[in-house]
Amino acid sequence: MFSFCSDPSVLEGFDWFACYLTSATHLNFYGAFLLVLVLLAVTAPAALGMGMLGALALRARFLPLVAVGKVYVNIVRGVPDIVFFLFVPIALGQGIEWMLHQVRCPDWTEPIRQGTDFLVCPEAKVPPNGSPQWLYTAYAFGMAVLAFALVFGAFVANTLHGAMQAVPRAQVETAEAYGMTRAQAFRRVVLPQMWVYALPGLSNIWQILIKATPLLFLLGLQDIVYWARELGGQKTSLFSYPHPDWRMWYFLALLIFYLFLTWISERVFAWLGRRLSHGQATAAGERMRKAAA
Hints:
Elements (H helix, E strand, L loop, with lengths): L12 H8 L3 H36 L3 H16 L2 H24 L8 E2 L2 E2 L14 H34 L2 H9 L4 H31 L11 H9 L14 H31 L5 H10 L1
Antiparallel strand pairs: 1-2
Helix pairs in contact: 2-3, 2-5, 2-8, 3-5, 4-5, 5-7, 6-7, 7-9, 8-9
């Protein structure tokens, strides 16, 4: 990045660190922090949407739909997360390639399954062979979002369903007595009030989601943990910037990053809790009412 970085072997002190910390690999390391934040920003609403669909399925009166919701929630909650993080991208990716293979290569005679290998014609590969690196990264990122949304959506579904059940039934019955349909009572009575009951559980799920982001490397993405391990490991004279084992310092930077992210999250959820509790018949809402009086 700097003009004096052309020959790292002659650098010392501040100049050495200035060039070392702005090298191409370190820029990838800094970009990995942005990757984590983008993943959280995309996955959180996706998981919330999956959770809402799951909660509505659990609440439905159509028994097959209830069964689907229960199967989804219980299977995901009962299977280790890492299994889904590995299974979903592999299974979905192979499923997409299998369908493309059937459409684009109907004359293919060799078996797709050859022992442990999954072989499709080149025209069915996703992304296509020879694609730029950003396309491979975008594909892996999309698979990561889907895997995270499926896993955490099940926990969100259970939390939202419990919050819906926590809204006093008398309020729903009163709304229906005034002529509202069940759907109208849900939209106007249950939905606005359930968030105050769901917020503690959602905040816990959000914190767990933050802690799960280092699993990105399982999905083929070079995350911050990958780069911290690679950059912090001992570098000999064969490298442009030789140094001893600095992994402790890199992982200390990750510790500070995650603690800061957690601290910010706690402040945001505390603010949301105060906003949602205003005017509600809950302990927090009652405290706010007495304080205002």
